[in-house]
## 1
Amino acid sequence: MKIFSASQMRMADEVTIKSEKISSLELMERAASQIFNLLHHRLQGAQIPIHVFCGIGNNGGDGLVISRLLVEHGYNVKTYIVNFSENRSKDFLVNYDRLKEIAKEWPFQIKSEEDFPTVQYQDMVIDSIFGIGLNRPLVPWVTQLIKHINNARCFTLSVDIPSGLYDYKKPDDAEGVIFADVTVTFQLPKLVFFLPQTGGYTKEVEVIDIGLDRNFLHQTPGIAELINKNEVVPLYRSRHKYSHKGTFGHCVLIGGSYGKIGSMVLATKAALKMGAGLATAYVPECGYEVLQTTVPEAMVITDSDDELEEINLDFEPSAVGIGMGLGTDEKTIKAFEEFLKENKAPMVIDADAINCMAKKPELLEHLPLQTIITPHPKELERLIGKWEDDFDKIRKAQEFSAKYRCVLVVKGANSLIIYEDQIYINNSGNPGMATAGSGDVLTGMLTGLLSQGYDPIRAAVLGTYLHGSAGDLIAQKNGFEALIAGDIVNNIGQAYLELFRQPQQQEQKS
Ligand SMILES: NC(=O)C1=CN([C@@H]2O[C@H](COP(=O)(O)OP(=O)(O)OC[C@H]3O[C@@H](n4cnc5c(N)ncnc54)[C@H](OP(=O)(O)O)[C@@H]3O)[C@@H](O)[C@H]2O)[C@@H](O)CC1
Ligand SMILES: Nc1ncnc2c1ncn2[C@@H]1O[C@H](COP(=O)(O)OP(=O)(O)O)[C@@H](O)[C@H]1O
Ligand SMILES: [K+]
């Protein structure tokens, strides 16, 4: 699913108004009445106090429509106008008059802290103060109002985006943003919902189709693409009856040091489970028996005792995954450098191999085109330097990717796959995956896909999705805490099957 910027959303709005020959007021009515329908469906007329806080722009206009429909259906509604500006939008004004015509109680104007209403824990709030039009810091009393609403800790539904969130930078005051239980957003999800600094402002996101112009939505490239099952199914390549293990390549996983051989076990198994035809683990001598015992399907080549000092392969690998438990000893960096100069196979670079490159950036010059690099936030910082906020991080990561022509998998709750100006946001996975070794599994999985001939961007998107999906399957059975990296490996097969499970089958099971 595409993600648009605020200005693209506005354009979609305008195009729809022209192509459908409807007014902006009708579009507002259509959008907001869908939110009302959702509420009505869930509340079924329940008489809990509902506080609707409306700004003075179109987001406020949406709130006024919701208020009017709630009043018309007999709900217990109080409407407030948060008067942060005299510059009221025209559709706000029309809906303001419409509400006044039918409501017994006129909307209450909030102009300062003295006007704040009491909101109780058992009430409900509709947050329609700011939408995607926020473009400058809030005046202090509006920030206070947002804090006042948050303090009530009652169920809060934000319209389009939690008020106080920009769609292009982090908030000025981390507490000056509505904490929503659910955000009902129009047509397409917004980027802020998936970034670590801003994703936490809403527990749930519901995207509603308000019928914006299909052609425009289809033809306009978004600023990012959200990756769910629908997006990855077309990436999957099925197997031919007469394929053989040579068809799926012979990959090599390189890494490990004394006390960190487990990372290589996980990565090697993961590569095989993803479908690599053959896998070799290249480890220091101390890892030999461990690997032969735990992954009998793999071949093992060893180097000196406890750390890698040389990387000499006696075959041409189809793909390379390097870095798990590798260490950053000078000798290892040297071996890595020599290897990079020789190697032509597609690569995944993780963990200590990233740290080696951060220590010696010249290594980056030797990467094959579209090498996949999989940093967690600390490793990313070593590569691209510090960032102001998540948006700045994305810009810097894009610059880095363009400079070195590499694919970055920026790992996190929603891992970002970045290639030059393309951004893919993975939407599978869960907090149970914040556990030792889950990154090693990802490296093995991506290497397994490269080995089978998937191109690097497809491999990164599909592999990251399947990694999260395998984690989700475990969490459904065992919860978050008991999830360990080895379980992710064991659920790779199920994650593949899940790609093709029909919704009915899913429902029957649950
Ligand atoms: N296709 C769609 O997406 C549809 C969208 N719709 C709805 O429209 C919403 C966007 O509406 P919007 O453009 O009127 O902006 P909104 O967020 O209401 O802000 C109001 C105005 O406040 C101002 N302002 C900004 N920052 C400020 C500050 N700190 N302190 C004071 N003032 C500040 C700024 O105006 P300015 O003063 O800069 O001229 C801004 O324009 C969208 O989220 C969705 O709910 C639906 O109705 C239909 C379909
Ligand atoms: N809260 C989370 N939600 C979803 N996925 C997560 C979460 N935390 C971590 N992960 C995933 O787990 C993996 C952790 O990788 P990494 O930090 O390299 O672990 P390790 O070094 O222990 O192998 C990444 O793929 C990341 O996206
Ligand atoms: K809002």
Note: The first helix runs from residue 6 to 19.
## 2
Amino acid sequence: MAHTNSNNSGQHTVVIGAGTAGSIVAGRLAAAGHTVTLLEAGGQDTNPAITELPRLGELWHSAEDWDYFTVPQEHASGRVIHWPRGRVLGGSHALNASIWVRGNPLDYDDWAAAGCDGWSWSDVGPVFEALENYDGAASPDNLNPRGKDGPIPVVGNYKRSPIFESIIAAAEAVGVEFNPDYNGDQQDGVSYEQLTIRNGKRCTTYTSYVKPLVEAGKITVRTGAIVEKLLIGGGAVVGVELHAGNNQEVEGVESEDPAARETGSGDVIRADQVILCAGALDSPKILMRSGIGPADHLREVGIEPIVDLPGVGENLHDHLLLPVIAEATSRAVDHQVDEQSISQTHLFWRSGPEQDRPDTQPIHFCVPMYDDTMTGPANAFTLHSGLVRPYSRGTIRLTGPSSADPAEYDPQIFADPRDRESLRASFRQAREMVRSAPLAEDWGAREVYPESDLATEEEENAYMDRAVTTYHHQVGTCRMGTDPMAVVDPATLKVHGVEGLRVVDASIMPFVTTGNTNAPSAMIGEKGARMLLGEE
Ligand SMILES: Cc1cc2nc3c(=O)[nH]c(=O)nc-3n(C[C@H](O)[C@H](O)[C@H](O)COP(=O)(O)OP(=O)(O)OC[C@H]3O[C@@H](n4cnc5c(N)ncnc54)[C@H](O)[C@@H]3O)c2cc1C
């Protein structure tokens, strides 16, 4: 971890949310001698299913999951989709599949072109490098160097389950080349995933950046601390107010949760500055509950607007997955692979020649990912087709003024028909892989889902509507920019119109990156810390 001497001048910084980005911001400030209080709604990260990666499915609907659900999706047969999000020290990094993907350099050049100076690939590439402790070889051409000395372990060298070798051969059989490092000079191709693990166990940014400081008494961390709202006075943030009363009233908190046991104190915590890192679903809700957001909407739900920022809660978007599940009829699939991940390969692929970068990122699991409506044999595996350049945009809206009022999450899945077509191409490719020799002949692979041939586009559409799900990469709801719909200033991450308040998490992305969003969220955390410490 980089330690920086900077002038602390007795200021108190409150960081809201001990997730991917918040842990980096809080840890970096505290390591530099600042007085920091880190507030986390969830509890301690002691559930063994957090560190043992193959058990990550146990965390869904658990005390560590906010357990959010979308509103019925108009363009996907009215389905309601579960959105797990981390509510625990470590945030969503404690629940995720641990995959480390920087994204495509063009993603960040697009951010810069959209008015976010300082966020182009040439700006953020070195930040990724500083974060990483990568165990693989450097990129052959060294255009995008990999980091070797950073605080985040990025591991490509782990025990493989044999099915993944055959999945790579199946991808090659349908024309996708093997790529040894998708975080290096080229993203396209089929690859082994790089994981944020240390000695085979999950390692979150909380573990790397904050835990050692807690042990050294250099930071205050409060768990079960659900921030109700920010306190604003004279155009500046002056503190935060915690939920008062029974924490079980709060959306998503169940009686057995650690957060529920710590009854909301209603404490007011004074702060000279507040860094909001509650993630793409909660940061906009906290802003809106505090009177910062679209004024008309706030009045509708009984909140007096303080700053009219129409972009808060807009621009919600997500990546999508669609499963192809196959039974292995001639060999046993090793499901637990000791302590290793149940997902070890993915591929980046362009659905058509018009794409300037991959628009699909299928991901593979050595287990059958049956949803609640599906049943089938246990000796099976999943080739999830995946869309990672979505055009559809949705919103997050409140239904009332308090954290007890459930919010409405509406990603507008398939509202833009181009999303369906990219996902269709990825889905057809996954089905072709199941039929290719390395899987069909060597494993006796036979499709379980979809259940039939799907001879027409209508039948394909029906399966897509019935089985499409989230890739867990919601972003964009407090996006950076300088236009009237922007929420934060790209140069400082300060919220437009409020002094002393910044947002530093996945919500600031103007567009989602091409790939999983944990590494980009960590990069945002590190950039935010550098801004606060005067390092850039
Ligand atoms: C199931 C799942 C699998 C995923 N798989 C991957 C993957 O393999 N690779 C990858 O790159 N990405 C993955 N992601 C996405 C990635 O984890 C997120 O993009 C990233 O963690 C977002 O970081 P963040 O800092 O914005 O928010 P988070 O890490 O979600 O942190 C937000 C924190 O704020 C806290 N908080 C929220 N509201 C309040 C409040 N009112 N008061 C106090 N605290 C509050 C939350 O409890 C949480 O700890 C996955 C996500 C999920 C959920």
Note: The CA atoms of residues 44 and 89 lie 6 Å apart.
## 3
Amino acid sequence: MTGKLIAGNWKMNGSVSFATELVEGLLERLNQDAVSADFVVCPPAALLGTVLSLAKDTDLAVGGQDCHANVSGAHTGDTSAELLKDIGCGYVITGHSERRTDHGETNADVNAKSAAALTAGLTPIICIGETEAERVTGDTLNVIKTQVTESLPDDCDPDNIVLAYEPVWAIGTGKTATPADVADVHNFIRGLLNDRFGEDAAKKIRILYGGSVKPENAAELLAVSNVDGALVGGASLKVEDFWAIGVR
Ligand SMILES: O=C(CO)COP(=O)(O)O
């Protein structure tokens, strides 16, 4: 692990002109500022080619938003991790709560997709997080434990995985978990990773926080123990805001 990882999940937003303007804006800043954070953008699949051609040979990394667990085959509309790697991606988001909800993805599915990503040479950004109902009933840590246990592939290399804690109730709602809540969950996740991989290996795994991260709350959230970066939705669509989250 080096600096913080600031990942932008564009979700189903953008166009060729939007992507070009946003990526050019980021590259301009990457060239000018001394940056300790690593930046990655995850555009919709149809914009990957545009973004990759702009980001080629730069410090801006690019990721997909999902991949199929299989290498190839009759899976209309899906994209394999191999193909993402082949076109130049370095990362892929797996298990985002919107995919768990919209497409019924289970921890087992997320595990298989993350394993496929690792086999292809991509770093999966494996998403976990409790719903509002689970938080209210005090089940947050149990849910997190199950998700971490079941979503991480058996033989995964701690060098090549990223976790993202995104409380579902904080996504796109403007509600952010308090630094104390975030600390509780991130410290708990670190403990689970320590138990599984041993402390030396586990500390290589970056644990991102996601859910209504914006320039106004980024400093406070990124200062929390065991918060190694951010997975940013809405604010990653504005170059000034996305940049200000990682460079302060
Ligand atoms: O889901 C998210 C990133 O993956 C977070 O989205 P928002 O930053 O828009 O809340």
Note: The mean pLDDT is 96.
## 4
Amino acid sequence: MQDLAALFDKSAAVLQHSLVGGRYLVAKHHLEAGDVVLQCPVLLTAQLPSWRKRICYACHRMCQARLALRCKGCEQVWFCSPACQDSTTPGSDPSHVGPEGAHKLNGLSDTQVPHQLLCPVLARFGSAKCGADMLCVLGMVLQLLGLQQLAGQAPSETQQRASAAVGAFEVLQDHAAELGKRERLEWLSALTFLRQALVKACWPEIPSLDELLPLVGRIISNSFGTYPDRGAQDSTEDDLLTQAADKADNVYQPLVSALSLPNAAAQMSPQHSLHGPGGSQLLPQFPSAEPSCSSISPACQPGMQQRQPPRALLPHACRANIAEETRSDLPAESSCQDMLSGSLQQRASQRARKPSTGLQHPDVAGPKGAQTQSIDVKAKCAPTTDPADGMDDGKQQGSGGLLVSESPVLDADNFPRHPRSETSVGRVLFLQASFFNHSCHPNCYVHRNPTGATIIAMQPIAVGQELTISYIDEQLPQAARMLALQRDFFFRCNCSRCSFGLREGSSRRKAKRG
Ligand SMILES: C[S@@+](CC[C@H](N)C(=O)[O-])C[C@H]1O[C@@H](n2cnc3c(N)ncnc32)[C@H](O)[C@@H]1O
């Protein structure tokens, strides 16, 4: 606990532990809406195969044009510039690469796993017979194995940082034991492929399946989905403040009103003293478009990015799909027990469904694109195809923004809706953010950019009060929320809103019957 606590030294959060609730974070001091609670770097991240030709492996920029520079060794990663390509080799000077700090692939500049280390293993990924999301997770497992290799090297700052990262990752909750039988078999099959790739690449130590499965268990239950975003790249301090205010007002106020929580509306109506003590001073300076990158890639030019309303949090693609399905399929007050018992059995098949329509990969044209999204175990017989091949770049949708976004979208009537039409482009794991518990009525939200995430208070938070974020679309009906949390995060939510909702649901049913 001592070392873990140090992860939060420079933040407004303190890690606590309770025998009943496990680890959780509380406010170190009073926070106002808009205050930054903490910033966490990206620990692991990977793109879905179909997006790799659009997203620079080094700086994580999403580009409109298909990237021209590909690693000749593995043929699995693409770069937006020679500088970005060079940055992945040890000893290079990363200072001129991409947006400020974006070369820090793992958010730990000195522990970025050199691409040369991973390249021979990635070279085998082209023949993988697993689905896109699984391949994405395998890529993150490989990065972690790379960090483990760095951690085993001779003492140096790099070694120390890698050891710290690996050590902290190992204490994240691992839900591998809760995988359904079918899912477990799927993962074992995918991990067997990874082991074979490691053997062929002469990896120094080949972990057993029993050692690899918990890594997957931690990654899938702690990672966020990444989404295309047009505009967040230029996030300014004012944008962040506005987002915090929008989120608090437009997202939670209607929810609170709908639930008629006593006193809650007042609590959820921050005074927006966003520039108050500890507010703006603490806000980070997000990297803006960087001349070195934009001068090379037209897609990185600020003029190419259209500002869009901020969007809401979603963990990853299959969660978005479930959200959409459950919204339409499920009555708001369905029995949660029924939902959950069904959900566990259906988890694998739900995940196997192809993403909903909406924003598609710019290269994807109809059914061909859908092929890459299936993670059905049977479908794994077909190699993962890359829809970017042979497509016309001129028909791409514009998308010059960041990979990740996490703020609400407003409908025409100004009521927040969820970006469920968005398709995930990959996954990302933030170490510190993994210690925030979920609430369906959270007091913080996560603003993400390619180099990391910033947790921001959405309302005044008293010293010692628990800090929570939402892992899902908290505007879903309770049954759907519970289903998504159980299915994707392996727990049953005990937040105050769910407890309240259960009582409300049963009393409404009673009232209907009566
Ligand atoms: C990302 S971790 C959060 C930190 C976690 N408490 C820990 O000790 O590592 C997510 C896990 O925390 C627990 N958790 C988070 N939010 C919860 C909630 N609202 N209700 C019940 N359990 C929750 C669940 O065990 C879940 O799998």
Note: The first helix runs from residue 2 to 6.
